[in-house]
Amino acid sequence: MIDIHTHIYPQVYLNLLRSRKTVPYLLDPTDGSPPRLIILPSDDDPNLSPNQRGRPIDASYSSIQEKLKFMDIHNIQSSVVSLANPWLDFLSPEEGIEWAPRVNDELENISKHNGGQLYAFGTLPLSGPSQAIVGEIHRIKSLQHIKGVIMGTSGLGQGLDDASLDIVYHALHETQTLIFLHPHYGLPSSVFGPRSSEHGHILPLSLGFPMETAIAFTRMFLSGVFDRFPRLKILIAHAGGTVPFLHGRINSCVEHERHYYGSEGAQAAGPKKKLIEVLKSNVWLDAVVYSETGVRAAVDVVGIERVLFGTDHPFFPPLEAEAAEWKSVRTNVEAVRGAYGTDERAIDAILGQNAADMLGLPKR
Description:
The protein contains twelve helices and eleven strands. It is of the alpha/beta class. The strands form two sheets. An eight-stranded parallel β-sheet has the order 1-5-6-7-8-9-10-11. A three-stranded antiparallel β-sheet has the order 2-3-4. The longest helix is centred in the middle third of the chain and has 21 residues, at about 200-220. The chain is globular and about 70 Å long.
């Protein structure tokens, strides 16, 4: 198997977070308990003791040995690791320019020294000047093990339909660098109601993240990004959020939007391509969706050759401290196998061959 959705906080990034005192930052409790990762304003509640804020992070978040051990347990031959949110979005322009090459070089070195088992998606200094972002896109093309870039939904701060991103999209399009689109900011907490904290992270992670992703991608589509950059490549996390289920509704809304059509019925604004065209020519989806229905929906909209296996490690670990196998991983593998039964060719495609073909990885 090949895992294309798996995260790591390399040591250089942990050093950055540990040097900060405002969100996001890494907090070392004075009682000797594991460090706490504070990545959202809601995590930084002064009414909570330090060892209750954010989430504890153990060695699985940063240790290459733990990553390789996890891969061995789950029969994963290769992984494409990526920096987990919030990436470098929070840095000043000057800091972004400094830290992006440092993080990308460490990811390259980690991958290079692990015998074809590890590859990576790089990160961009999106808070920096456009030319610096473009320069880093071109630079990482020379890094053999970097197979694309991970991006959040905010872009340069105004979303992925921001016209100022066109120079970045142009560089990604020109170099044929894959975007791995991943959520971070979710939806406003008010959406989930005053009792949401009773349910921990369930509502933000199960509903907020997918909707954030779907909205960000749909904004790209509506603004004509894929018309201007017809060969732009994007891999969308969590099976595209809600896009596979809602693509028909989105398309119908486009076809009936009065702002887009003149009095004679001719289209005067809006995207030129149909959404289904974009999904089948520009988009890949991961299979981190935990159900046969979700896997089939992803395949239905982009095609069997465009759905790729992922684990989302080190998130969703087993609650049982002694468990070696992760239930979350088993659930995703079983969803792929259950969706395609005896069709071993389809199963093999999703679990590994598609990633090998798309990213130029050895299928071992």
